[in-house]
Design a protein that fits this description.
By secondary structure, the chain is an alpha/beta fold. It is built from ten helices and 20 strands. It has helices spanning 12-15, 75-92, 135-139, 141-152, 213-222, 237-244, 257-269, 284-293, 315-331, 350-363, and strands at residues 3-6, 20-22, 26-29, 38-42, 48-54, 60-66, 98-103, 112-117, 127-132, 157-161, 174-179, 187-191, 194-198, 227-231, 249-254, 277-281, 298-303, 333-343, 368-375, 393-399. A seven-stranded mixed β-sheet has the order 16-15-14-17-18-20-19, with helices on both faces. Helix 7 (257-269) links the parallel strand 15 and strand 16. Helix 5 (213-222) packs parallel to helix 6 (237-244) and helix 8 runs parallel beside helix 9. It is globular. The structure holds S-adenosyl-L-homocysteine (SAH). Residues 209, 212, 232-235, 237-238, 253-256, 259, 283-285, 304-306 line the site of S-adenosyl-L-homocysteine. It is an enzyme of class 2 (transferase). Residues 2-87 form the PUA domain.
Length: 400
């Protein structure tokens, strides 16, 4: 096995169990490992640090599989990792047909995301959807797919590796069936009593924002009798939760006609009164201002925009965009109204996000109180050694 030796004192982060080796920390590579090959990472003095997946093209030159010298990387390794991840989810995740089964580094499988749409009496057919985002998991794809189907008993695995991040790893974007049957046009997944149609082939990410489950449940809990506005609604996740929770009226905005069509299908699938829901195919920034100018007001608003800051360079512009929607969102609330506001930009941390929202409130001259800090569900764990894994953060605010 090829050895990667670090520069002197560059072993510290690995000793703290941070799972990435940057190219500039490497002193020498004894040989020419293929991309995705397993290498041994050693400190400058020769001490064993980790087994890792080599990535010839990325600045993240190696990602750690294991810090245990006695643990080889083979088929059994992937079976153990997948079984462990599944066991944790089975114990902790309830009231849902959709779980994040593997969340990359936090599950010891760097660069791999797997969502599992579980079969039940009604849906009959389960579906696993994967994103392979690093050379190591790409090289072990077959072993991983076998481990997934064995552990879950679900025969259907679909790949959604159509993500630009693969280019940094020298990998092309790809999608398709990895095992079992072609996914249906939409499958049905039930969460907290709400049925959602999910298009795993053409939808965003793996088809559904599994990470917002707990937050949708909160909206459901607080929606009774309220006028709700859901911005960036996609296929209606929060809108359906609000309808289920007894909202009086739900106005939803998204700029994707396809997402809105599925959202409307979801209203029908749940037997909700379509007259309670309004769907606006429009730009959320402009529509928020228009609604404000027209004197519309709401009791509960959800702002769950796409990632405004794809990387650090975009933080300033993203901060202005977050501030813009939060400012108008706060002004659109009636007294006592609730704002659920989110950012899924990894480059904007929870502290900065709170500052942005606070400055929106102060510019709007509104007294806002934080009732709760929000994040992804327990199936999106965050490794303490790997704070980079945090991306979704949110706040539940109430205005005076
Ligand atoms: N809240 C959703 C996920 C939101 S994803 C859920 O829980 O399922 C972000 C959504 O924002 C996408 O559906 C995308 O189509 C939409 N979008 C992006 N830019 C937009 C804009 N300027 N105006 C309105 N919608 C936009």
């Amino acid at each position: 096995m090829i050895t990667v030796t670090l520069k002197s004192s560059k072993e510290k982060s690995l000793l703290r169990r941070h799972p990435w080796v940057y190219a500039n920390a490497i002193d020498r590579v004894d040989g020419e490992p293929a991309s995705g090959a397993t290498v041994i990472v050693r400190a400058h003095d020769g001490r064993f640090l980790a087994r890792a997946a080599y990535s010839a093209h990325s600045q993240i030159r190696a990602r750690v599989w294991s810090f245990d010298e006695a643990e080889p990387v083979d088929h059994a390794f992937f079976r153990r990792r997948v079984q462990r991840a599944l066991a944790h989810r089975q114990k902790m995740v309830q009231n849902t047909g959709a779980v994040r089964l593997i969340f990359g580094e936090a599950d010891g499988l760097p660069g791999l995301v797997v969502d599992y749409y579980i079969a039940d009496d009604e849906t009959q057919r389960g579906q696993i959807v994967c994103q392979f985002m690093a050379a190591g998991v790409e090289a072990w794809k077959e072993a991983i797919v076998a481990a997934l189907t064995d552990a879950t008993g679900c025969p259907n695995v679909y790949e959604r590796s159509d993500v630009s991040i693969r280019e940094k790893e020298g990998l092309e974007q790809t999608t398709g069936v990895l095992a079992g049957d072609e996914p249906p046009a939409t499958l049905i997944s039930t969460e907290n009593g709400v049925r959602y149609h999910v298009d795993v082939r053409n939808g965003h990410k793996t088809g559904f924002y599994v990470d917002q489950r707990d937050n949708r449940a909160l909206v459901q809990q607080f929606a009774q009798g309220r006028d709700v506005l859901n911005c960036f609604c996609y296929t209606g996740g929060f809108s359906l939760a609000a309808l289920k929770g007894g909202a009086q009226r739900v106005v939803s905005i998204d700029s994707s006609g396809e997402a809105l069509a599925l959202a409307q299908q979801n209203v029908t699938a749940n037997g909700f009164d379509a007259a309670r829901a309004t769907w606006l195919d429009a730009d959320a920034f402009k529509t928020l201002r228009r609604l404000y100018d027209e004197g519309e007001r709401f009791d509960l608003i959800v702002l769950d925009p796409p990632k405004f800051a794809p990387s650090r360079e975009h933080v300033d512009r993203a901060a202005r965009a977050y501030k813009d929607i939060n400012l108008t969102g706060l002004k659109l609330l009636r007294p006592g109204g609730l704002l659920f506001t989110y950012s899924c930009s990894g480059a904007i941390d929870a502290e900065l996000f709170q500052k942005i929202v606070s400055s929106a409130a102060s510019d709007a001259r509104i007294d806002a109180r934080i009732l709760k800090r929000l994040g992804a569900g327990v199936d999106h764990p965050l490794l303490t050694a790997f704070p980079e894994g945090e991306y979704l953060k949110g706040l539940l605010l109430q205005i005076a």
